[in-house]
Description:
The protein is an alpha/beta fold and 89 residues long. It has one domain. The chain is 37% helix and 15% strand. The protein contains 4 helices and 3 strands, in the order H-E-H-H-E-H-E. It has helices at 2-6, 20-23, 34-43, 60-73; strands spanning 11-15, 48-52, 77-79. Strands 1-2-3 form a 3-stranded parallel β-sheet. Helix 4 (60-73) links the parallel strand 2 and strand 3. The longest helix has 14 residues, at 60-73. It is globular, with a radius of gyration of 13 Å.
Amino acid sequence: MVLALIEGADVVVYDCTYNDKEFASKVGWGHSTWQEGMRLCQAANVRQHVIFHHDPDHEDVYMERLEEEARYEWIGNTVARENMRLRVG
């Protein structure tokens, strides 16, 4: 169902507070992982996946490393920041 909703989108902003390793202890909390968001976006031919809704315990250094890892995994990944503007198209 999610794939049908996002198929071919230019941008998907996805609630992905955790990473795949953290998620096992957070099941049922109502959040997903950036890796799952990426997999969904890739499967649905989305151009840009915006990693959004960060865990407050993830400090700036953690988020910088996450962004490096995410961009390495897929160039379509972007970490959301306060007051960020996206250019689409």
